[in-house]
Design brief:
The complex is a heterodimer of chains A (292) and B (312). The two termini of chain A are 14 Å apart. In chain A, helix 1 crosses helix 11, helix 4 runs antiparallel to helix 9 and helix 6 packs across helix 7. Chain A has 11 helices and no strands. Chain A is mainly alpha-helical and 292 residues long. Chain A is elongated, with a radius of gyration of 22 Å. The longest helix of chain A is centred in the last third of the chain and has 37 residues. Chain B is mostly helical. Chain B has 2 domains: 75 residues; 179 residues, MetI-like (MetI-like fold, Orthogonal Bundle). Chain B contains 14 helices and no strands. The chains are: A mainly alpha (292), B mainly alpha (312). At the A-B interface, helix 5, helix 6, helix 9, helix 10 and helix 11 of A face helix 1, helix 6, helix 7, helix 8 and helix 12 of B.
């Protein structure tokens, strides 16, 4: 992850080129389709779901998959298919704000660390290293234990734990760019620091961070689902993939379809975002391809 | 090298110190009287008084922190308010279960991943290489607790090939209890390690000592298996060291799914009973484990590659 200054998206047409590149790669296309399906079904969830995802119907409880209930019902007679679709919305509702927040803060701190004085750089790096030194789930559990479970807690925990990743990459990029000729030229002409960072450096850093974000989303979705599975994430009766798994785990012998209905969307979503992220990375910056 | 070792462990100690202080202040930042929060609805005036004295809550906050840090240095993680047992006893009793699970998981996945990666690198751009690549990416995407639940459903509940809960007694029983959990944790690592080994293997295969080995007429399996692989697996060491946090996180979930004893189960049980000293103790021990393993990975890297020493 060193020099990646050239191929970042700047205009609509470059975005088109990137999209074309992703579509040419079979795995990338598959990722795009999966992610597209999840995003669209989450956006249109209210209209797609055949039943109210939190409406209980004790008469029809714990029924296997059928035409009336495509993925069966749970122990309270709620329609699993509706809960899976709505769960996608919850997953994105946690993942997107958390990732964008972490990216914005990480980017700012990283650029300050890379461009500012040495002591500030050391201080920020120590801060990043400290956050990274907590195993993510353990940190999340400690915070949840203290402030109590909720959707906001999950977003904040995910954001806090992801800041260092973005910060470190933004810092490395800034350090490399700092001594490149176009920045030196700008500096010698007396440009302000805010102009150098905002106008000249930012566009060259954000592309790499966007790729990183796409590859980070699976982890965030898994963490939300994991915390909800432990009963420490979103509160019932909110439909979440993790909550489905929690209900399914408790009744794994009686209603095995719940575990499958909760688990497959998580695997599909992580698969889709991973494929898309890797394909994006190869198109945006072929140099990062090394580990493939 | 000695200088690097001292600096690297100095940094690790500094990070741990900051981490502990952060945790300590976080607990104090929660609104409300810490004693009532810790004891919850069970708070009686007597219990409150005992805990206040134990945690030195009647002292100013910086002294509380110093007392706490001093205790940590002596290996004292505090006392479980309910059972009056020492937290470090409780935590270190559960730690071996988690370590055993992590070691077995990373062990099988590293062996399989290295073999797959080496094979793919020896036959680049063949069908087998592509299949390996596709499998690698797919496995990376599978979160441990989802795999744990699905394997539990298929192999323990439906097929009943393996036991579903607990850690087992005696060697054979314990091994059979480890199969499903270690698959759940290790699965995503197989593909990751395979890709890593393939990439570094392809790099190594182009180097001069491999060319020399070829010129001497050594057999291809010998070149790949011994001369190239020895160097190509170095990144794996680093990745496993840095991945310790991720492994610990996966272990937490897997322990819950398979109802295995261990750090994860301990933390969750303590959260539900609001037993904060135990929660904090377990989080600190796992953080220390992570920081130390990252430092060790850096150290191994520095021994093998002198260029890495300049980074600090």
């Amino acid at each position: 992850m060193t020099v990646a200054a050239t191929n970042t998206p700047k205009s609509q047409s470059e975005l088109g080129i990137i999209l074309k590149g992703v579509c040419k790669d079979p795995l990338g296309l598959m990722g795009l389709i999966i992610v597209g399906t999840i995003v669209i079904s989450a956006l249109l969830a209210t209209w797609i779901v055949p039943y109210d995802p939190i409406a209980m119907n004790i008469k029809d409880r714990m029924q296997g998959p059928s035409f009336a209930h495509l993925l069966g019902t749970d122990q309270l007679g709620r329609d699993t298919f509706s809960r899976v679709i709505m769960g996608g919305r919850v997953a994105l509702k946690v993942a997107l704000p958390a990732i964008f927040g972490a990216m914005a803060i990480g980017l700012t701190l990283g650029m300050i660390a890379g461009y500012g004085p040495k002591w500030l750089d050391n201080l920020l790096m120590l801060f990043f290293d400290t956050i990274r030194s907590f195993p993510t789930v353990m940190f999340a559990l400690a915070v949840v234990a203290l402030v109590g479970p909720s959707l906001q807690t999950v977003v904040i925990v995910v954001m806090a734990t992801s800041i260092p990743t973005y910060g470190r990459v933004a810092r490395t990029q800034t350090l490399t760019l700092r001594n490149s000729e176009f920045i030196l030229a700008e500096r010698s002409m007396g440009a302000k620091m805010s102009r150098i960072l905002g106008v000249h450096m930012l566009p060259n850093i954000i592309g790499v961070l966007a790729v990183l974000a796409a590859m980070d989303i699976p982890g965030v979705i898994a963490l939300e689902a994991g915390l909800s599975f432990l009963g420490l994430g979103v509160k019932p009766p909110t439909p979440s993939w993790g909550a489905l798994l929690k209900d399914g785990y408790a009744l794994i012998r009686q209603t095995p379809w719940l575990v499958i209905a909760g688990g497959l969307p998580i695997i599909l979503a992580t698969l889709g975002f991973t494929f898309l992220g890797e394909s994006l990375r190869d198109v945006v910056d072929p140099k990062l391809r090394k580990n493939r | 090298m000695v200088k690097y070792t001292i600096k690297r462990f100095g940094l690790a100690a500094l990070i741990l110190l900051v981490a502990v202080t952060t945790m300590f202040l976080m607990i104090r930042a929660v609104p409300g009287d810490p004693v009532s929060i810790m004891l919850g609805p069970r708070a009686t005036p007597e219990l409150k008084a005992i805990l206040t004295a134990q945690m030195a809550l009647d002292q100013p906050i910086w002294r509380q922190l110093l007392i706490y840090l001093g205790g940590l240095l002596r290996g004292d993680l505090g006392v479980d308010v309910f059972s009056q047992r020492s937290v470090s006893d409780i935590v270190f009793q559960q730690l071996p279960y988690t370590l055993e699970l992590i070691l077995v998981s990373i062990g099988w996945s590293a062996m399989l991943g290295i073999a797959m990666g080496a094979y793919a690198a020896a036959h680049p751009n063949t069908m087998i290489d592509r299949v390996t690549a596709a499998i690698s990416v797919s496995f990376i995407a599978a979160p441990a607790f989802v795999v744990a639940l699905l394997t539990l459903l298929v192999f323990a509940v439906k097929l009943q090939w393996f036991p579903a809960i607990g850690a087992g007694e005696g060697f054979a029983d314990r091994m059979s209890h480890l199969v499903l959990p270690s698959i759940a944790i290790g699965l995503s690592w197989v593909g990751y390690i395979a890709r890593l080994v393939r990439a570094s293997m392809l790099e190594v295969m182009g180097e001069s000592h491999i060319r020399t080995a070829r010129a001497f007429g050594l057999s291809e399996p010998r070149i790949v298996g011994i001369y190239a692989l020895r160097i190509a697996i170095l990144p794996v060491v680093t990745v496993i060291g840095v991945g310790m946090g991720f492994l610990l996180s996966s272990a937490v979930f897997t322990e819950i799914v398979f109802a295995r004893p261990g750090l994860g189960k301990l933390v969750i049980d303590s959260i539900t009973t609001r037993n904060y000293p135990v929660v904090m103790g377990s989080v600190l021990v796992s953080t220390a484990l992570f920081v130390i393993s990252t430092a060790l990975a850096d150290l191994i890297n520095a021994i093998l590659d002198p260029r890495a020493r300049a980074d600090l």
